[in-house]
């Protein structure tokens, strides 16, 4: 994690220093809550608990939870209140990685520099750990004890999360991604994949933070646009990093996507044009924040962080 | 389905006839709603829609939705209002069947007399169709448009459903079921498996119906007991049917459980004692209804139906 924070050096030094500190604070808050709220299971199913914990605490960047906490805080909410929601999204993100790595999907042996869940626990337990994480995310939200979030908003958040991680988002993105049939419009297909597979969940984080902090509906729309553009920026960067990254930095085998004949931005547009597209999304993201009355500087910095990350 | 209804003949003729009609009516109501509310997906992911539909409309008994509709109606609620909740549970039940059948789990080729989802669509799509069904179930509840159910009750139902189908229920039951390590207390293990794997979701149906119809908290507890006992009765019957059933009636290869060295009631207690245990659960279920002030005769009949089913 420290490495991740350090690598964000190549932004303006002062803003960056203070942003690194901000990110780090949010991260500590989140990690403590994630650990403390992690469920203990009966001895009969200790292996399920171990398998869930293994992937949940495998050293992810926690970008999605930090997006929620930051958006909520920009809206004036105590980030403590947003923690169960940030947890729920990280559970969903983790489940998606476990299932994506399975032999019948991407068949990856390595994730974040460690054996993938099914290599460590076997396919059956990995599959079930994914199912458990997904299911439990909805329990985290529906049984969150704080009364600071209205029931209307909690139901709205559950609906958005199920939308963006299910058939109208992540699952459909993955289905399109593994579809190997020829297409006469590869850039439209690539766009569909990324908008659904990665973009939808990232967008939902901004929406969830915005709803939690009771932003005006018009501002929720602007923040949604922001979320869509940084989701796109994130995915283009991911494709670029996969193309040029080295194994040490990524913690996974570089070039996997190309080997599997997956569509990527560098493959369709070339590396230089892809970098321009990432920057364009970043610019659009920043512009969508212009008309928001509240101080959303931390979101601007987060967008820069997404653009400039190197893993 | 007609066969299923006809086979319930060996109960008292008049009550049975009217109950068969009742079940059939609820079934029609449910099937129509399930069909009408089934989502249409964009052309890019038509195969996901096909795969979800294939398993969702594979001719299941719909016991779980009918349990919800019946409990809600006994409590005086228009069953129409309970339909999205009944759908959600059937989505979850269907997802669990698809994932259970996968090669890394039970590796079954046949389900309800048809090729299993992964035989028909491949493992990757089957896995994702399961993920999609599970996720969408929470969207069905959180975005249900009727205002007849309070937001408090909707959140309570989501929490129960995530509890009973996740780490505190179905997923843990499945984890214990595939655990092949030696046990010095097989009947305790069997009890754990069935209480979690099948019992929890069946119990949740009764609880959901009871909450929807605003039964008193004390009566919800009694109905929960009822749900637990019919869940147990259902599973003992399932084990008995698997032991003696024939392929035509079950739509799956009989004796699969014994072949896989899975613990079953007949294996631990013998066939005759298992039948007595099923009847005992039925009697306990019926007894728990005695102190409920509302007319719950349909639930008594449903319990008899669970006990006497032959597939």
Note down, in words, how this protein is organized.
2 copies of one chain form a homodimer. Chain A has 311 residues and is mostly helical. The first copy, chain A, has one domain: Farnesyl Diphosphate Synthase, CATH 1.10.600.10. The first copy, chain A, is built from 16 helices and 2 strands. Chain A has helices at 2-6, 13-37, 46-56, 63-74, 79-101, 117-121, 123-142, 151-165, 170-178, 186-212, 217-244, 247-250, 256-259, 265-269, 271-288, 297-308, and strands at 110-111, 114-115. In chain A, strands 1-2 form a two-stranded antiparallel sheet. In chain A, helix 2 (13-37) crosses helix 5, helix 9 (170-178) runs antiparallel to helix 10 and helix 10 (186-212) packs across helix 11 (217-244). Chain A is globular and about 55 Å long. The N and C termini of chain A lie close together (11 Å). Chains A and B meet through helix 3, helix 7, helix 8 and helix 9 of A and helix 3, helix 7, helix 8 and helix 9 of B.
Assign the structural class of chain A, choosing from mainly alpha, mainly beta, alpha/beta, alpha+beta, or little secondary structure: mainly alpha
Overall pLDDT metric of chain A: 90
Largest contact between chains: A-B, 51 and 51 residues
Strand content of chain A: under 5%
How helix-rich are the residues of chain A, as a percent range? Answer: over 70%
Task: Characterize the quaternary organization of these chains.
Answer: homodimer
Largest sheet of chain A: 2 strands, antiparallel
What form of chain A results from the Cα inertia axes? globular
Total helical segments of chain A = 16
- Spatial arrangement of strands, main beta sheet of chain A: 1-2
CATH top-level class of chain A: Mainly Alpha
Count all strands of chain A and give the number.
2
Spans of at least 5 consecutive residues with low confidence of chain A:
1-11
How far apart the termini of chain A lie comes to 11 Å
Q: Could you tell me the radius of gyration of chain A in angstroms?
A: 19 Å
